[in-house]
Design goal:
The complex is a heterodimer of chains A (195) and B (282).
Chain A lengths: L1 H6 L14 H18 L4 H18 L9 H23 L22 H20 L2 H12 L4 H8 L3 H29 L2
Helix pairs in contact in A: 2-3, 2-4, 3-4, 4-7, 5-8, 6-8, 7-8
Chain B lengths: L5 H13 L4 H15 L7 H7 L3 H8 L8 E6 L8 E9 L3 E9 L7 E6 L25 H8 L12 H4 L29 H17 L3 H14 L6 H14 L4 H11 L6 H8 L3
Antiparallel strand pairs in B: 1-4, 2-3
Helix pairs in contact in B: 2-7, 3-4, 7-8, 8-9, 9-10, 9-11, 10-11
The chains are: A mainly alpha (195), B alpha+beta (282).
């Protein structure tokens, strides 16, 4: 299948969608997919699996990709489905548990090029973000991850979610309001706790 | 469109950096994908793909070897009483990077495990020094890795081969898809990487496609049925049903009906165009 995708053109960056090579898609979008999967709340133990699923499906469907949308919007559709699928299978496994997964332990993540103070602040912020996103319903979480984390435009989001543009705007507004409310509540709670 | 307050926008900005995969993350996923798809996806894979015919150029492009695909894969399958037997397969990635697969068939009490362990960068085996003998480039072949895995003897514990009736109602989540090395495994230093559900799904469909290519329709249908029983709502469910529709259309009888059923069931599938043109074209 990869042969089919590559063989049609010598230049992997060729403009024809048929020339898209899987490796190029992977290289360009691995970071995007990983970020979104984490933002959508997939637990640490399952990130590898879900990211892999996304690319296995992308690999199989690449020959059908017609270039009507950008690779990224196309991949986002696959990604959202893979994450929903993952959550449903968690639910099937333990129907009486809540869907909240073990959040990624940011302390174990490798330290990036930041000072210790910046590091601690960033860690706190990531934790808060994960909590708030985790408490939103799936639709709100999805639209916020696409808009705020991945910085996709409203028309792109409309395409990914199969919604019309006005619906995207109004859902985005509601999702942001919910996010602001929850974040404010957690921040207030945290301030009280710290006295 | 109202925007988030600055302090909340900042949360997302911080997460953009924090949610990036690390080098180790990328490497793990790349190795797993290479095993599942039988194609290299690492940073150098593109270079190999385009310059496979020019080993000198490929050597240059891949010399950095950031995602060196040196993998030792030890597959231990339980074959009671069998003596350990080693098979070494070298698959070329340009002239520098090598994927060495060490498939070990050993007697380990009926448990199966696929272990993946990064190996230190090795020089290519002597046999392949000459370009004339260069092995198959990974990118353009279909799954030498998966084929090795598939060809190995496997035990019921290690496979998902559905046992006919009694197992049929077990949901996929309950299947033993992640076999672990038994305590006191003979490979204590290897990190066990269970074959993931998705790679098992992909392998079944891949085998079905091979069967179709070989003209063995009956075998292909059996494999698709096996996928349907084992992973009724697997991530490749749509692919499976599309494959089935295409197969039915290709073999004549009932094609149109199979195509229509697929379109009804998966109207939003990206495979709709293909199924429609194969099954419903006037």
């Amino acid at each position: 299948m990869i042969a089919r995708a590559v063989a049609s053109d010598d230049t992997p960056t060729g403009s024809s969608p048929a020339a898209l090579a899987f490796v190029d898609v992977y290289q360009a979008e691995a970071g995007f997919v990983w970020r979104a999967v984490r933002g959508l709340g997939v637990g640490q133990g399952a990130i590898d699996d879900v990211v892999q699923e996304v690319f296995v499906i992308a690999y199989r469907r690449l020959p059908e990709f017609e270039g009507r949308s950008s690779v990224r919007t196309w991949l986002s559709g696959i990604l959202l489905n893979a994450v929903r699928h993952h959550r449903r299978s968690l639910l099937r496994k333990s129907p009486h548990e809540t869907l909240r997964e073990e959040p990624t332990d940011v302390d174990t993540l490798e330290t990036r090029a930041r000072g210790p103070h910046e590091e601690a602040v960033a860690r706190e912020e990531t934790r808060l973000l994960e909590r708030v996103l985790g408490d939103l319903d799936e639709a709100k979480r999805e639209i916020l991850v696409l808009a705020e984390l991945e910085e996709m435009s409203a028309p792109e989001i409309a395409e990914v979610l199969g919604l019309n543009l006005n619906t995207v705007y109004s859902r985005l507004r509601l999702a942001r309001e919910s996010f602001e409310k929850l974040a404010a509540r957690y921040r207030a709670h945290e301030r009280r706790r710290l006295g | 469109m109202s925007a988030l307050r600055p302090e909340n926008r900042a949360l997302f900005r911080a997460a953009q950096a924090d949610f990036e995969p690390s080098e180790a993350d990328r490497e793990r996923v790349e190795k797993a994908l290479a095993m599942t798809l039988g194609t290299a996806v690492g940073a150098s894979a593109g270079a190999v793909g385009t310059s496979a015919a020019a080993p000198a150029g490929a050597a240059h492009a891949t010399a950095s070897g950031v995602t060196a695909m040196n993998v030792s894969m030890a597959t231990v399958a339980g074959v009671a009483g069998a003596s350990a037997k080693g098979v070494v397969v070298g698959v070329g990635m340009g002239a520098v990077q090598w994927l060495s697969i060490v498939a070990v068939v050993a007697a380990v009490g009926g448990m199966g495990v696929v272990a993946l362990r990064p190996a230190p960068a090795q020089p290519p085996p002597a046999v392949s020094a000459s370009p004339a003998m260069a092995p198959v480039p990974l990118v353009s072949t279909h799954g030498p890795l998966t084929r090795v895995v598939a060809a190995l003897p496997v035990t019921p514990a290690a496979t998902n081969t559905p046992q006919p009736a009694p197992q049929a109602s077990v949901p996929p989540a309950a299947l033993p898809i992640a076999p672990h090395a038994p305590a006191g495994s003979s490979l204590p230093s290897t990190v066990a990487l269970a074959e993931t559900r998705v790679s098992q799904e992909a392998r079944l469909l891949h085998d079905a496609q091979n069967a179709i290519r070989m003209g063995d329709t009956a075998m292909a249908l059996r494999l698709l049925d096996e996928h349907a029983r084992t992973f009724p709502h697997g991530v490749l469910e749509e692919e499976r049903e599309a494959e089935r529709a295409l197969l039915t259309c290709g073999s004549g009888g009932g094609g149109r009906e199979a195509g229509e059923r697929f379109l009804r069931q998966y109207p939003d599938s990206p495979l709709v165009t293909r199924v429609r043109s194969a099954c419903l074209a006037p």
